[in-house]
């Protein structure tokens, strides 16, 4: 495998360099009991990036160390805070992940995903790519950019040097140091900061009249696609001002090996008029783009990103078909036996201790369905665990939520993208007594208002119905 990939600092690009023993001494306080520091991957004006290993998990990470004194002197603290906020907002398989942030009096530490396949730039430097390979990278790039834009994040410095490849050849967007968020848009609805790398910058940025950052990212993606396919830049000149003129006029020519379909596609992306330039949804509907494209499927569990490798996973089959196909061939008695086996194999929920119970209700009134907090609610039921899970699945089906189950935990995930991502709710079942269960519901992602609306419209009534069913059971069986 290739040597460790160039990682970036957010404000400067990291160039590979040799490891220094003095740097290890500097980091001993950070890594004791947690991370074992390896070689220095690179350095910039305000930061250094090291390869490191988590001692407990043996996981490889990249640690970016920022000199707090330097950034305080030039007023970059707000910039660093914004970068942290952005990286936490955009967790996606095609974006370099931020795992945690730590700080001392003199240093700020970003513990990040270690990407060791090299820069995409290094791959292109060897020559142009085959169309299928270039298309795959472009599809992954657009998936990452679309994810960012849906969350109000705009990169504004997309280029092959800021795109890394992992050991499996999957693309990872890095360096969100120049990124902007929708909160920074001025009253005219546009951004006004001049930023980006000259060869990849959009013509409207050069005009300095304000620009739509989403359209600027799309332009940069178009330049990247051209470079992947051609092996050189669409707008290039030794004189920077001459190059800017070419960009401003949109003067470029596709080489003869570009298919007519690709040439037409690029002309729509590299449209100098941002009003008529192709949008992300239109890109995703383009015939050239769609060949072999699969939407990236993933979810966050226990603060970790989990990939869904198959187009339809086993869990989704269970949710969509409700076991219909497998149960169709079973007799009634066989079905009952199978249900009993499922009940027997299900792990017992964790028991609550006295302190948990006290925290649940100051008055010990366990008859209430919910005790609501800012982002959570609790529900008490006499129903068995499988019945509670079935009710949660039933509620999720009504609003077309995806359901993921693990032991006594259920995750419900909405499909609607918002600025804070899809609404994600975690429900965990605890045992209060041998005959009573507590369901604790928490918002894990998405908009608070949407969460409260879902709780009031769907979750509360659904679980209240379950409670009514529980009370009705003894009289029905008498």
TrEMBL record:
A GO BP entry: signal transduction
Domain named NAF: residues: 347-371
The keyword Cytoplasm belongs to this UniProt entry's keyword annotation: no
Enzyme Commission identifier(s): 2.7.11.1
TM stretches of this protein: 216-235
Biased composition regions of type Low complexity, renumbered to the chain: 1-17, 317-332
Function: CIPK serine-threonine protein kinases interact with CBL proteins. Binding of a CBL protein to the regulatory NAF domain of CIPK protein lead to the activation of the kinase in a calcium-dependent manner.
Name recorded for this polypeptide: non-specific serine/threonine protein kinase
Organism field: Oldenlandia corymbosa var. corymbosa
